[in-house]
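note to self: the first set is below, dont mix up w the second
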Amino acid sequence: MEGKRRWHRWTGKLIAIVFFALVALLLANRARAIDWPAVGQALQGYQAATIIQALLLTALGYLVFATYDLVGRRYAHHQLPTRRVMSIAAVCYAFNLNLGATLGGVGLRYRLYLRQGLSTRQILRVIALGLVTNWSGYLLVAGSTLLLVPPALPQQWPLPAWSLQAAGALMLTLLGVWLLACTFARRREWHWRHLHLLLPSLPMALSQLALSALSWSLLALTIYSLMPDPMPLVTVMGVYTLSILATLVIRIPGGLGVVEATFILMLSPVYPEVSLLAALLAWRALWYLLPLLLALPFVLLLETRWRGQKGGPAHVGATQVAKTDDHDDHPSRLASLPQKKGVA
């Protein structure tokens, strides 16, 4: 059994390496053929109104993403102030996009919340709920897009036209199963080592879904705002959701290069390649690099000035909840919890 598991791990890694190598070769070939001075001119050609619009969409996208941890606060039963929770979430999102989920989405979030006085169990609950929130919204947005308005695949791709619709239907089915589980599942608690998870209630799951779907839509809308006219929004949505599927295979932070390759492969026969690349570079600068630069001083603030001090309000509130939380896995305690049928 152990040998079979090791073989599966190595097979998965080999597939990812081959896929990454093919994408790298494709990008190298494309890079040699691109007129980079023309790309620079395209970037300079953006009007101030277009950049401001993209900046506002980016700010709104980060704001919506930061509310994931407000739902997580209710799920983990901690009492950190709203401003602090949203600051941690937004900062970790910027690091997550640029440096990867392990460092930004998990490692940095764990450290910052730990500095605020939260227990390990509470932090793991916040992280777990954030992951579920993020991908439930993706299933809705990507599934609906691929099922209803699938993008046209290049002729050289060996995939039938209905394959995207099938993928969309599968995504929506998985989402439906999750929502049904949140509504009707009898077993609502899982224990694994120090991790104790409660299945959220249907209202909480729906709030997660709405926030995440809005977040993914704002991200695609930002790309759309920078793309050449007259590209339809559904085209951007379809190509971007496909690029995310590719990044799940190639584990590169932020899908760097993978998103660009997908857009160029699928849209360059119709739209100028120079304009596509300029739009994606501008999007990377606004959605990835600029928030990371702004996040750096916030990390220092969270590490020092906003650190939960012993005896301070944040520390006391979190410690009191942590003490209660440390006992809530006792059977008698679980029986008395009002969240017995799901976290409200």
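second set (the one i keep forgetting abt)
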Amino acid sequence: MSGGASITPVILSGGSGSRLWPASRSLNPKQFHDLACGPVYGRSILQETAHRVRGKGFNPPLIICNHEHRFMVIEQLRDIDMTPADIILEPVGRNTAPAAAAAALMLVRDDPEALMLVMPSDHVIADVKHFYAAVETATVAARAGALVAFGITPDRPETGYGYILGGAPLEDVKGCSKISRFIEKPDAAAAEGFLKTGGYSWNSGIFVFTAARYLEELERLQPAIIAGCRQAVAEGRRDGAFFRLGAEAFATIPSNSIDYAVMERTKTAAVTPVNMGWSDLGSWASLWEVAVKDKNGNALSGDVTALDTADSYIRSHGPLVATVGVKDIVVVAMDDAVLVLAKDKAEEVKALYGLLAENKRKEIVSHLTVYRPWGSFTTLKEGDRFKVKQLTLNPGAGLSLQRHRHRAEHWTVVDGTARVTRGDETFDLHENQSAYIPAGARHRLENPGRDIIHVIEVQTGSYLEEDDIERFEDIYGRE
């Protein structure tokens, strides 16, 4: 982006990504995944979003996320060599209006004229030149007092998005108009009519406004939200690289979106229509829409063999997936779950997710591989009174000094050197060496070297869940 005052990107990294299950889980939602939809294969959607708003015209981003996702956020930003302005931790989800308010309150403390570009972390924008042009247009309007939404120029009668109807052009701001009205997700006939009539845009959930102007309108329209946010910021505390909002105060705030809380009620709402190759990746069908396809219209990823298969999305994160004689389907295979559905039923995945939640299925919470600030662990096998994991420890990293009441552990080093603390002794284990940690013993596992190490952990005992842990020391500030 060129010229003008700098703007602070506020990246909202919340949600569970339920419509993209089984790839997306509550502890590892879609924004942290590489879904092969960005210009650089291997980047997650969050990384693509952050990378898009770096450089001239942009301040370092301010990230708002669930406290359970904090270490994934900071590690993914480090992977692309980006230092955020701050990472704000929400104790509970309260939708986008309170999240943006907390960010605005923190921004105006340092700059009363701060500009905000509020954007979700899990959207795809293929045409960044048009995106930058829209940001510049919206910035001019925001400086004049408008609260600006990005409206996506529709190319089909989509029923999965809300719509914005543009009104009179905004004075002295070319390419921006007042918002006449917001429309909820329409039926097919209404969506067809919008497309034919013109003047309608999809509501992208991307906004530009000054922090002070947003707070002013929130004060007028939603005093309970702004009062709770002020208290949550005032009672917040610094936790290393993170800022934790006051938990009790934030929990009392009404849950509401920017659209419902402010944009649909303010008299200064405006829209900047833009055609920028946008998708909210809201379903497996939308992923098929943006993916590169073969001559048969198939989007294939991973270990997949497709015979007499057309117009399908087939993705494997592990086992071989083979299809014969099918069309317009979605298959997503993980190590612990497989989803198969008709492509036109992609919106039903959210209902399926709800059913799995009712049945308390752990497959909606995490993958077999779970990421921690020190590395990761992968569950290889589990049964009655035992569980086998592979631990991956980053250079210089270490688990907390801890103990377990109900399980013992046996560590075997696969490669490298691990440092073990067990009770009052500390010693090193080399390749093929092992150590036994009895239940109740204080212990710690560390990687003192410069290379990643792998350790096989065998747990045995009457209770093997992750909440059987008592921490005594932790360099990552976990309670």
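remember for set 2: The CA atoms of residues 22 and 337 lie 7 Å apart.
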